[in-house]
Design goal:
The protein has helices at residues 17-30, 49-62, 78-90, 117-128, 149-161, 175-187, 204-214, 220-228, 233-253, 268-277; strands at residues 6-11, 37-40, 66-72, 95-99, 133-138, 166-171, 194-198, 258-262. By secondary structure, it is α/β, with parallel strands linked by helices. α3 (78-90) packs across α4 and α4 (117-128) packs parallel to α5. The structure holds flavin-adenine dinucleotide (FAD). Flavin-adenine dinucleotide (FAD) is lined by residues 41-44, 70, 72, 97, 99-102, 116-118, 137, 143, 145-146, 151-152, 155, 158-159, 168, 170, 197.
């Protein structure tokens, strides 16, 4: 069942040396999943960019798994992005998750030379040819700024046509949204793999806050049950594990080409889900 599935895991760059040591342990624990890559997020216009590079280089040098830096273009210049691409190439990095990113709150700087991810994908192809395997973001429940479903899907296709090799979705808890998204992509002759992003559930308040900003829906039944378990950490985790495992089972049974885990730099829940799935 697992031989042809693409499993990947996403981390955020730790701010401290201790966080980096902990992340190495997490990475080692996740090796049993035989991941295709470990990706590392990138703060648009923010201060974590150096930490992303450090974390990516650490993975590339000390792990058997390929590192995939996220690269967001908002607020950046062609020259910055060019330099970063060539640095990554020199480090032997062959995968990139190409994003627009979001303006940090209170952002007063320039919006830079790129306004959408399709321009970044085109620029990466112009600068580095086919060197990088490029992943882009997909939104089965639509991007929060989308003006209409049709427009969002058309823009997604534009990003794919610019040269993306595969896509990773925003997390969701409603498998129908994913399958409908795949149908809409098929109608537009988008044929790249679209791997669902999986967010384990460990903390209701954090998940609710996160979901409100990124436009991921927590269905009412789920929100209500999680709220009830808010002060029962173990009960909430067990319930969350059952919900997310069932979601993954449905996605894989329906033909998802793999799973991308949003790890939040923790291995325990991901390993439990994977074990229950028989991965
Ligand atoms: P785009 O594809 O550019 O889309 C953004 C919006 O613009 C959409 O509403 C779309 O419909 C519209 N649009 C697209 N193209 C055009 C066009 N040509 N003309 C007009 N409108 C257009 N953010 C970070 O800052 N750092 C990260 O590391 C990070 N990692 C992520 C990983 C994944 C898997 C996902 C799903 C998201 C991630 N994000 C990250 C969040 C992402 O940056 C935001 O969701 C951002 O708002 C949109 O980025 P995008 O690449 O999808 O943008």
């Amino acid at each position: 069942m697992t031989a042809h599935l693409t499993i990947s895991c996403e981390f955020f760059p730790p701010r401290t040396e201790q966080g980096m040591i902990k992340l190495r342990q997490t990475r080692n624990q996740l090796l049993v999943l035989n991941p295709a890559f470990f990706s590392v997020t990138f703060g648009a216009g923010g201060s974590t960019q150096e930490k992303t590079i450090e974390t990516v280089v650490d993975i590339q040098q000390h792990s058997s798994v390929a590192a995939a830096p996220h690269l967001s273009c908002i607020g950046s210049t062609k020259e910055n992005i060019r330099n970063l691409l060539h640095d990554y190439q020199a480090q032997g990095i062959q995968r990139i998750v190409a994003l627009r990113g979001d303006k940090p709150s209170g952002w007063a700087g320039s919006l830079g030379e790129f306004s959408h991810a399709n321009q970044l994908v085109s620029f990466i192809r112009e600068e580095t040819g086919t060197h990088f395997q490029i992943e882009v973001a997909a939104y089965p429940e639509f991007h929060p700024q989308a003006r209409s479903p049709k427009e969002d899907l058309d823009y997604f296709k534009q990003k794919v046509d610019a040269g993306a090799n595969s896509a990773i979705t925003q997390y969701f808890y409603n498998p129908d949204a994913y399958f409908r998204f795949l149908d809409s992509c098929a109608q537009r002759e988008v044929t790249i793999p679209i791997v669902p992003g999986i967010m384990p559930i460990s903390n209701f308040e954090q998940l609710a806050r996160f979901s409100d900003t990124c436009g991921a829906e927590i269905p009412r039944w789920l929100r209500f049950r999680l709220k009830e378990l808010e002060n029962d950490k173990e009960g909430l985790q067990e319930f969350g594990l059952a919900v997310v495992t069932k979601l993954c089972e449905q996605l894989l049974a329906g033909g998802a080409p793999g799973l991308h885990f949003y790890t939040l730099n923790q291995a325990t829940l991901i390993l439990s889900i994977a074990k229950r799935l028989g991965l």
